[in-house]
Structure formats: structure tokens, C-alpha cells
Design goal:
Chain lengths: ~325, ~325
């Protein structure tokens, strides 16, 4: 059974000018020990999906359809009091900017022990021992001495390690990492990715890695989901999606990433930009930018269709006739 | 100064006083603290070429851009543009002349455009400032031309910045930068706030404009793949100093400085061919940089000399490298 199983969820924002559907009919699942990469442009709805799982959607946004199952339990519409017990205990969250996810007025030791004591029955001394063990695990040198340090005394990479330690406090079964390396330099980025990978392998944690950086996905993820304008465009094994993308959007996206030693005069690019939520075209949201769009593309949204035997699915009419995802 | 070079920077120093307030310092007997953001940097840019600066955050690359643009007055060193020294220039009229020829594109098109101005006014501001238009009609004609040149439509001038997406906004920034008919553009991370598919559009626009107008770029980025795509020459910076200046082909095929090598190894590989080796440690605090070669605590080739003596740039083939290990043929 998958740790997290999202099926056909939609997230809507009622506004004065009508309802905006930010995420539409999206389905994902992540197994234990697996890292699922979620990529998409800014505004595609990738972070919203993560926030919906932990019940942190900014009002007026809310889930209007579909279900989110955590270890088989429906957590889609749990009241806040129930959700607080799950968030932090079962689901750990890592946000982009480590400086804003830590409280600058408390030592990191206090933040860690507080989180542990909130969710676990432990004495203070036990919690402290656990916190030091966690700091050690995420690679903070001399954790006993660093325990009483404030967030500003750490560098960016070290701060992100503290945030990861916070997310791991109560042995969660799912980690949602929302752009965990975007605020970091390449050299530090590699360290954090390695850390996340090891954690999910060794502890069997399911990880949802939300990022816009294909390089990070290629390194860390087992499977990848590509989101375009709130809909799933393609999902599959990371190597097949990157080496042989099936959806025209994924293909355009992959081509437009500059690579070292490529020596191209001009980079291939997708013309235009992702449509705004209030101006999404009829049918496939990508059709105005797609070179191969047909008449059906302009009328109907394509379902996810299996494009090969290796579990790669693309929401594109070009594969009409293949197995459809229900 | 050779004829080919549009810009020469020699021994540029940019120090910032980051001391605590005077009274605090007096009470606690603390010394003054100086942050050496840029410490003795030299490079030159050939007309019509792209020179890039690459490095981790805090290494001083943006400070160099700002000093060259005249936004900071350097603590020391020379910035020579078209034979005139910007660092020591006292005469305002000379600076105005230089600043017309030199424009800057900033990282975030969300912060660099005034939200209360119409796009046509944003683009026309440099034209007005430098009195480049004979009359109003001429001014609008120039603005419309610029809009079309950067791939927007002439009627977009009536709109406000919030009506545009990130990529379109960056096009507006480029149009504004081009409006004073500069020869030299300073681009500080022009695409890092954009999505990859949009990044490709902006990079293509920049190369096309360079071909068309013969522009020279000082390009700053932390993304080595973007650098590889755009540059002719590359300077790798670490803690306020340049550790390697090299033609593009050499950097990626024959990196010499240990930091450059480690930086190249740290790039995520899309093809997933090789497992990258994470670089150990992080950039040290620039207020208290390590002694000798500032890279020595992270360097696998460091020895006693590296801990004590600061390396200087030496010539190796087409490249310039500042490293004792390279000098002693240890690597």
C-alpha cells in the first residue's frame, strides 16, 4: 500500500471574478522509501498539492474533489485539531527558505525538543538526547555544542539541515520537501540532496520532492510527475521521463534546459508562456503552445494514457488508443 | 589599454564597514570590522564579447557588477571604460557619458520595474534622461521600436508591469536597458528568477541582440550551464577574489583551479551518468576569511604554503589561475 495516495483532487480558489481551479483532477501516489519528484513552472500548482496534503492551503483555497489517503486513512477534510496531530508526527515538511522556517528567537535545540515533546511522550532529557541524535544524523558537526545555538549562527546549508532534522523529529512516514535546495548554492545543494536520498532509502520514508530544477530531480527522484497549469502532464520513471519524454510540454522543457558542452547558438524553447488560471484554454492547457495540436486537443482535456510498458503516463491525445488511467 | 577592450578592471577593491555602532565598540573594546567583498580583482572585456563571473553566493560577483555600473564607489583600484577611469572620475559630465553607454539588467523583474509607471514611461526614462529624442513623437517611436525589438507588441507600452508575466517583464527590463543605445550591458543573474522554458527565450533574445547590435556583456550567474551557453570568457570567483580566468572552452574541458574543478563536479547531471561528488564544507564568513589562499580549508591539494601565502594570478596557456598547487605542478 502506498504511503500517500492522492486521487483526482481539485483545489479551487473562489474569487470575486469567479472560481479559479488551481489544481484539477490530479492523482499521485508515493511508496515507502520512494522519492517522487514533482516539477512544473511557477504557478503550475506543485506547491499547492504539497500544501493540500498537510492541510496548509491558504484560504480561500480548498480541496473541492478527490481524496488524500495517508496509509489508507482519509485525511482530505480533517479538522485542524486532528491535522495538527498528523503534521509533524506523520508528515514532515521542509520549505524552501530555511531562515523563515526557523524561529529566530529560540535556539535550535529548543525548537527540536519542543517539536518532539509535542508529539511524543518523553522526558525532557530523552527529548534532548533524541534531538542531538537527529542533528548528528543530518550531518551537523559537534551537535552537543550546536544544540544551544540560534538559527542566525548557522550558514544556509547548515540551517537547511536543521530544518530537515525538525522534519524527521517524530519518524514521519512522509516528507514533503518544497524546493529544499533552491535557496542554496550548487555545492551545498549536492550535500542536501545526498542527505535526503540517504534518509528516504535508510528509513523507508516516502518523499515528495517539489522543485522546478530538473537537475535535482534527475539526481534524487525515482519517479517524476510533471505538472502543467494545475494538471498532471506526465508521470513515470525518472530516467524514462528525462531521456524519452512523451508529453510535448516535457519534451520542450527538457530541450530548453541549457547543458554544458552543448554549443548551440540558440536554445530550443517553447513559444509563449503558461496560461493564467483565469485564461486557461479549452481542452488541453498546452494546446496553444504545442506544435502538434489537433482539433481534439482544443476541445477536450486528455486523460492520462499509458505510453509504454514501463509505467510512463502522459496526458496527451497523441497517445490515444493506449490504456487510460481511471 | 588595448583598443579591443571596452572595459578594464584593475585591482578593484570594495570594502564595506560592518562594525557595530561606535558606542558598542567602545564599551566592548571591539575593533572595526571590514568586509572585503571584492579584494583586488582584475579582468578585461573585449568589445562584442561576453565575460561571465561565476561563483557561490557571497563571493562578490554582484558587488563587482554594481561597482562597474557605478552604483558603488570602489575602495580602490581602477575601472576603465573607453579609456576613462570611472573609479576616480570627479567630473559628472564624463560619468553621464559613460553611463549612457553602459546599462544594467537586474535579477528580479518583479522588483526592478516601478509598478506605478506605464511600460512606455519605464522604457522612455533613459531616453529622457540622456535627451536622446528630438521630441515626444520621436520618443514614442523609439519606445515602440524597442518593444518590438524585444519581442513584445508596440501597444504593450500602454500597460502596467503587473499585467505581464516574469519573462515579459524581463523583456521590458531589456528594452529599458537598450533605450539609451548602450554598447555595454551588465547582466546580474538576468534569468535566475525565471522558469527554464522562459529562461531559454530570454537567453536567445540576449544572444540575438548581441549579434544585431554588437553589444558587450558582463554576465553574472551561478548557473554553470547558462554561463557555458552565453560566455566567451569566464572568471571564477571565490570570496572576493578571482581564482581562474579562462576562455569558455578551457573551463569545461580543462579546469585548472581546484575550486573550479569541484564546482564543475557539483553540477547535477541531467543524464544521471555520473554521481556528483558533493563539495565539502561551505563558503567561509567573508568578515574573517581564512589566511593565505581563502580556499585552503576546502581544498584537497592544500599544503602549508597555501595556509600562509596568498596566491596571485599566473598565466597558464590561455588561462590565468591563482593557485600554488597549479604553480608547483602538484595538480
Amino acid at each position: 500500500m502506498a504511503v500517500i495516495d492522492i486521487s483526482n483532487i481539485s483545489i479551487e480558489f473562489p474569487t470575486r471574478r469567479g472560481v479559479l481551479t488551481a489544481v484539477e483532477n490530479l492523482s499521485l501516489s508515493i511508496e515507502a522509501g520512494e522519492i517522487l519528484g514533482v516539477v512544473g513552472e511557477s504557478g503550475a500548482g506543485k506547491s499547492l498539492t504539497g500544501n493540500a496534503i498537510v492541510g496548509l492551503l491558504e484560504p480561500p483555497g480548498h480541496v473541492t474533489a478527490g481524496t488524500i489517503l495517508l496509509n489508507g486513512r482519509d485525511i482530505t477534510h480533517l479538522p485542524e485539531s486532528e491535522m495538527r496531530k498528523i503534521r509533524g508526527a506523520k508528515i514532515g515538511v521542509i520549505f524552501q527558505d530555511p531562515l523563515t522556517s526557523l524561529d529566530p528567537l529560540y535556539t535550535i535545540g529548543r525548537q527540536l525538543t519542543q517539536t518532539i515533546l509535542t508529539h511524543k511522550k518523553m522526558s525532557h532529557a530523552e527529548a534532548k538526547a533524541r534531538a542531538i541524535e537527529l542533528l548528528n544524523e543530518v550531518g551537523i558537526p559537534a551537535p552537543e555544542q550546536r544544540f544551544d545555538a540560534f538559527p542566525h549562527e548557522f550558514s544556509g546549508g547548515m540551517r537547511q539541515r536543521v530544518v530537515i532534522a525538525l522534519a524527521l523529529c517524530c519518524d514521519p512516514c512522509l516528507i514533503i520537501a518544497d524546493e529544499p535546495t533552491t535557496a542554496l548554492d550548487v555545492s551545498v545543494q549536492a550535500q542536501i540532496i545526498d542527505l535526503l536520498k540517504n534518509l528516504s532509502r535508510e528509513k523507508g520514508v516516502a518523499t515528495m520532492l517539489v522543485t522546478h530544477d530538473m537537475g535535482v530531480i534527475a539526481e534524487a527522484a525515482d519517479r517524476v510527475a510533471v505538472i502543467y497549469s494545475g494538471r498532471l502532464a506526465e508521470i513515470g520513471d525518472v530516467r524514462s521521463v528525462i531521456d524519452a519524454p512523451k508529453h510535448p510540454y516535457t519534451r520542450g522543457l527538457m530541450d530548453s534546459i541549457p547543458q554544458i558542452g552543448q554549443n548551440l547558438k540558440t536554445l530550443p524553447n517553447i513559444i509563449g508562456a503558461m496560461p493564467r488560471l483565469d485564461a486557461r484554454p479549452e481542452g488541453c492547457a498546452f494546446n496553444p503552445r504545442c506544435a502538434k495540436s489537433k482539433s481534439i486537443c482544443r476541445q477536450q482535456t486528455a486523460p492520462l494514457i499509458e505510453t509504454g510498458s514501463d509505467g510512463q503516463w502522459a496526458a496527451c491525445w497523441a497517445y490515444e488508443g493506449g490504456n487510460k488511467y481511471v | 589599454m588595448s583598443e579591443q577592450n571596452i572595459l578594464e578592471v584593475q585591482g578593484l577593491k570594495m570594502y564595506f564597514d560592518v562594525s557595530p555602532p561606535f558606542v558598542t565598540r567602545l564599551l566592548n573594546r571591539m575593533p572595526k570590522q571590514v568586509l572585503k567583498a571584492v579584494d583586488g580583482l582584475s579582468f578585461s572585456i573585449e568589445r562584442g564579447k561576453t565575460f561571465s563571473l561565476v561563483g557561490e553566493s557571497g563571493c562578490g560577483k554582484s558587488t563587482v557588477a554594481r561597482a562597474v555600473a557605478g552604483l558603488y564607489t570602489p575602495t580602490g583600484g581602477d575601472i576603465i571604460i573607453d579609456g576613462q577611469n570611472l573609479a576616480t572620475a570627479k567630473d559628472r559630465s564624463k560619468i553621464t557619458d559613460i553611463s549612457r553607454q553602459m546599462q544594467m539588467i537586474f535579477q528580479s523583474p518583479y522588483a526592478s520595474l516601478d509598478p506605478r509607471w506605464r511600460v512606455r514611461d519605464i522604457i522612455a526614462e533613459p531616453i529622457r534622461a540622456f535627451k536622446l529624442a528630438a521630441n515626444k513623437e520621436d520618443e514614442w517611436r523609439q519606445v515602440e521600436q524597442l518593444l518590438v525589438q524585444v519581442g513584445l507588441s508596440a501597444s504593450d507600452g500602454e500597460k502596467y508591469p503587473h499585467e505581464f508575466s516574469g519573462g515579459q517583464r524581463q523583456r521590458i527590463s531589456i528594452a529599458r536597458a537598450l533605450s539609451s543605445k548602450p554598447e555595454f550591458l551588465i547582466c546580474d543573474e538576468p534569468t535566475s528568477a525565471l522558469d527554464v522554458s522562459v529562461q531559454a527565450q530570454i537567453l536567445n533574445l540576449m544572444t540575438a541582440l548581441q549579434d544585431e547590435l554588437g553589444l558587450t556583456y558582463l554576465f553574472i550567474s551561478h548557473d554553470l550551464a547558462v554561463i557555458d551557453h552565453m560566455s566567451d570568457w569566464i572568471g571564477v570567483m571565490y570570496l572576493g577574489r578571482v581564482c581562474e580566468i579562462t576562455p569558455k572552452s578551457e573551463l569545461f574541458s580543462n579546469p585548472r583551479h581546484p575550486y573550479t574543478r569541484l564546482l564543475l563536479e557539483a553540477i547535477p547531471d541531467l543524464k544521471g551518468r555520473s554521481h556528483r561528488k558533493p563539495l565539502k564544507g561551505e563558503v567561509p564568513n567573508p568578515i574573517t576569511p581564512p589566511s593565505g589562499c581563502t580556499f585552503h580549508p576546502r581544498c584537497p591539494y592544500a599544503n602549508e604554503r597555501c595556509k600562509q601565502e596568498q596566491p596571485v594570478l599566473g598565466e597558464y596557456g590561455p588561462s590565468q589561475v591563482a593557485c600554488h598547487a597549479v604553480e608547483e605542478f602538484r595538480i
